[in-house]
Fold this sequence. Notes:
Blueprint: H1 4-11, H2 15-37, H3 44-47, H4 49-71, H5 75-104, H6 111-131
Helix pairs in contact: 2-4, 4-5, 5-6
Amino acid sequence: MFTLKELVNWFGVTVFELIIITVAIFFYTITIAIKLDGFLPISWWFVHLPLFLADFFLAYFCVIVFIRQCLDCLYRTAFFRAFWSFNQIAVLFTIKFFLCLKLEGDRRISCSEIWAPIFFHLLLLMLRGCQIH
Length: 133
């Protein structure tokens, strides 16, 4: 099992971001259970709403951290962290967006098109894993 420090280093996120992600996944599991049990007729967009809100809060937090690091004259660290964080958020948002489109049946999107961004994300994680000592 990974330690918290290893997760923070490997994924390039803070503990606060991990808490946001964990809470979003918790509410996502509740909404997906409600949807699949047929308890309420909710759309797939509503099911994925906790994950989209988590993306928004993570992006907002990244902007705050970027500004704080720039004010502390840590420009190189700020730009690298902002690039890494926004790239992760954008790739995962794209996957969730395409998945919602596919589940709603609005467009003809193949499964390979939905999951293609995950390979880019895994490549970035592998590169980051090689940089960690």
